[in-house]
Amino acid sequence: MPFDVAFSLPPEEAMAWHIILGQQDGNVWDFEAGRWKEREK
Which pTM does this prediction carry? Predict the structure, then answer.
């Protein structure tokens, strides 16, 4: 995503994209805690 687009998004939409792209990378978002779940090592 181009920087001009990313920085012009409202905070809620930017966070949604952050979560979506992070989950595609194999991470798991904990919606109740509002943070990423720890990965098993």
Answer: 0.71
